[in-house]
Amino acid sequence: MSPNTDTAVPAAPNEPDVSSAPDAPDAGDWLVDAALAPLAGGSLAPLYAGAAAGELTLPFCAACGLALELEQRACDGCGATDIRWRPVERAGTVHAATLVHRREPGLVRVTEPYPVLDVELTSGHRLIMTTLTATALAPAIGRPVAIGFRVVGGVTVPAAALDPAAALSNSAALSNSELSEPSEPSDAATPDSPRATGTAPAPVPSETEVSQ
Ligand SMILES: [Zn+2]
After folding, report:
1. Ligand 1 mean position to 60 CA, how many Å?
2. Are 189 and 211 in contact (CB under 8 A)?
3. Of 16, 5, 32, 68, which Cα lies nearest the Cα of 150?
4. Residue 83 CA to chain centroid, in angstroms?
5. CA dist., res. 19 & res. 14, Å (int)
C-alpha cells in the first residue's frame, strides 16, 4: 500500500547525503521522511526497543527454540504459543533483492532507485529491510551483510550494511545518542516495517509484501 500521495508535505531539498546517515541518526533518515516512521509499540515493540539499544531482537519459540516470523503467534514446529524475544547475531546474507523505483517528494528523500532486501539471518530468521546508506544498486544474492540501524522519526529500524565495519560504527553511534524525537504513527507499509518471511528451511519463500 502506498502512503498518501496527496498529503501536502513541503518538498525539502533532500539530497541522498550518504555521509550523514551512519554517524548522525538524529539528522534524519536517508530514505524516507519521519512521517513514514513505523509504530514503535504494539506486537513489534521488542524489535524496536532492541534496535534502539543497538541490538537485533527477534522472536523464538520459548518451548523448542525455533526462529519465528515477526508476527507469528504459534510455533510451526511444536505448536507452542509462548514467544521469547532475544538479541541475535547481526549478520546474514542477501536472500533476495528488489530495486524500488519510487518518487514521492516530501516522503521519499531519494530520487534514485533504492534496494529492499530480504535478508537471511544467521539466527534462522528472514527480515525485510533496506540498506544502511543510500545506494541505487541492488546487492548480489548471497552477499554477506551486517545489520545496522536507521532512525526514522525517532524509531530505530534494522538496515543492511554492505560494509560490515559501517554497521559496527553505526551501532556505537546509536547507543551513544539520545533518540528523543517523538515518533509519528503511520499505517503506511514502508521499508521501515520489517517483516519476517519465514524461517530458513521453508521450502517456498512465504509471501513477502514489499509494497513500495
Ligand atoms: Zn516450538
Report:
1. 8
2. yes
3. 32
4. 21
5. 13
Contact 75, 81 (CB under 8 A): yes
Q: List, for residues 14-55, the tens digit of each pLDDT value.
A: 444 444 444 444 468 999 999 999 999 999 999 999 999 999
What spacing in Å lies between the alpha carbon of 74 and ligand 1's midpoint?
8
Output the CA–CA distances (angstroms, integers) from residue 94 to 33, 130, 208, in the order listed. Answer: 25, 11, 14
Mean pLDDT of the chain: 79
Whether this model's pTM surpasses 0.85: no
User: What is 99-159 written as a DSSP string?
Assistant: EE----TTTB--SS-EEEEEEEETTS-EEEEEBSS--SSPPPTT-EEEEEEEEETTEEEEE
Cβ 196 vs Cβ 205: under 8 Å = no
**Cross-strand bridge partners of residue 31:** none
Give the start-to-end residue ranges of the domains of the chain. 22-38+89-175
**d(CA 66, ligand 1 centre) in Å:** 5
Tell me the CA–centroid distance for residue 78 and ligand 1, in Å: 4
Separation of CA 61 and ligand 1 centre (Å): 5
**Which residues have C-beta under 5 Å from ligand 1, the single-atom ion?**
61, 63-64, 66, 75, 77-78, 80
Task: Give the model's pLDDT for residue 192.
Answer: 57
The CATH class given to the 22-38+89-175 domain equals mainly beta
Residue type at 123 in one-letter notation: S
